[in-house]
Design goal:
48% of the residues lie in helices and 13% in strands. It is α/β, with parallel strands linked by helices and 527 residues long. Among the domains are: 76 residues, Arginyl tRNA synthetase N-terminal domain (Gyrase A, domain 2); 77 residues, no CATH class; 114 residues, Isoleucyl-tRNA Synthetase, Domain 1 (Orthogonal Bundle), CATH 1.10.730.10. The strands form four sheets. The protein has a five-stranded parallel sheet with strand order 6-5-4-10-11, sandwiched between helices. A three-stranded antiparallel sheet has the order 1-3-2. Strand 12 and strand 13 form a beta hairpin. Helix 2 packs across helix 3, helix 6 crosses helix 8 and helix 11 packs across helix 12. The chain is globular. The relative contact order is 0.11. The structure holds one RNA strand of 77 nucleotides.
Length: 527
Amino acid sequence: MKKRVYEVLSKHIDHPIVLEKPKDKNFGHYATPIAFSLAKTLRRNPMQIAEELAEKLREEEMFEKVDAIKGYVNLKLSQDFLNEYAVWALGHEEDFAKGENGTSILLEFVSANPTGPLHIGHARGAVWGDVLARIGEHVGYRIEREYYVNDAGNQIYLLGLSVYLAGREHLGFEVEWPEEYYRGEYIADLAKKAVDDLGEEKFTDETFIPEISEWAKDRMLELINENLAEVGIFFDHYVSEKSLYDRWDEILTKLADAGAVYEKDGKWWLKSTEHGDEKDRVVVREDGRPTYLAGDIIYHYQKFERGYDHYINIWGADHHGYIARVKAAIAFFGHDPQRLEIILSQMVSLLKGGEPYKMSKRAGNFILMQDIVKEIGADALRFIFLTKKSDTHLEFDVEDLKKEDNSNPIYYINYAHARVFSLFEKAGKSQEEVFGVSMEGLGEDAYDLLFTALLLPEVLEDAFESRQLQKVTDYLKYLAGMYHKFYYDNRIIGTPHEEKLLKLSAMVALSLRVGLKMLGISALKKM
RNA sequence: GCACCCGUAGCUCAGCUGGAUAGAGCGUUGGCCUCCGGAGCCAAAGGCCAGAGGUUCGAAUCCUCUCGGGUGCGCCA
């Protein structure tokens, strides 16, 4: 809708237009303060400009009313326009709110180390990335989801060592635990399975640790994927860090050719300060082994090689210091670092009944994602993360999400959706049979509701483009609230307007349903 | 010390490409079921938008500084 308004306005104004939704609905559906900015360039009174503009816009069929008030131009869409749009939307649920864009995006998220189960912090990035992708795809972007698997380095050895030792303990050997190893019951569980799968003999000698590491890492990745699948999150690609190092010599040569690296103290350094980093970073150690950053450099090199238009990485906020060096590497390869966008996902703290949530022993002092899913369900988990910006600290109480009243927004929204279905059932009608009904003669509040329901497309687009997913949840809560009130104020069944109001209800339900789908939450027809 | 994020109602948070009277949920107080699902609706109370300057027709929003909280600052991954 907004697009159509833009188009019409652009015919009359040769200037960038700001369209906003007025806070007070008496001011119409859309408003523009354009006269203020025009006043500056034209050196004329904004009120006059607004009035002249309003005069012209009144001739457009799309608007029922155009007012110039205090320099604002307020626009009210015509009922016919809203009606037509609703009829189309109801008949094309699959296409409703879809857009065309075509830009391809590689979205990397989660990328948790395969050394332990996912914890609650991972869950935030996981849900956020998944929904960003869902919405982006819906509004027309081509998005592929990728998981970067850190399957190289010391941590994998430590995982193997931990499983090896736990396996020995399981077999009855006396075990002396080193200072550094992975704790938590999952290691013991893994060890038992490893003993069964690999055989007891692998636990007799430390030389088998690399083999155990490999096995444990694969198994861990499977577990992580199971955790993610429980919440409905899947990936298109997995890229193994280990596999990348085959190309290190080639990439290092490229960096050297670009003048991006230099040798000092027997190490190779990336001149990341040239592109805004605080200090240069080591990429090859004295003993010749590449650092973790080297892996990331290769990874991003090949990402750009794969030719997407845009790249998004969702990282835990504790990695923020890493952004500058990765972007520096990209710049050295001659790519525009702006094409890589890093979204940070901030910390999460959990409460239960007002008290700090008890850490799971199983996790080794982490709150496991799967425990929270078990406790509040995947939908609630999704919703809580989606009501907040990704880059602010978040604290929530799991008890609140278990309540079944309006303190729980998912129930609130789904209740509105279910109400519509219950109305149709009560009326003995199918949704399809009212699609064609004219909506003429309904009151203002009905049209306000209809207009709000039709806002979904622009809400989704705005949410995706601004990377502010909470706009979708806010909108759904708002629309559901509006419908609850409408329902309370207006009797529907058995009135002369029954079919019209049912159609309106169907439109509201459609927006709620499509909106929830974008969040990966299913809409209930009955609760 | 440096970098990033944050500071809005008692609590958890929206609002931030500057725009008309600062919002929601919870909590508190008080109303609404002989009527389509009360898992709902209505209302009241509650704010120097951390503080101070600046930019301008206009600032919660942009800039600078100060104060407060979080996180990061290995050649670990």
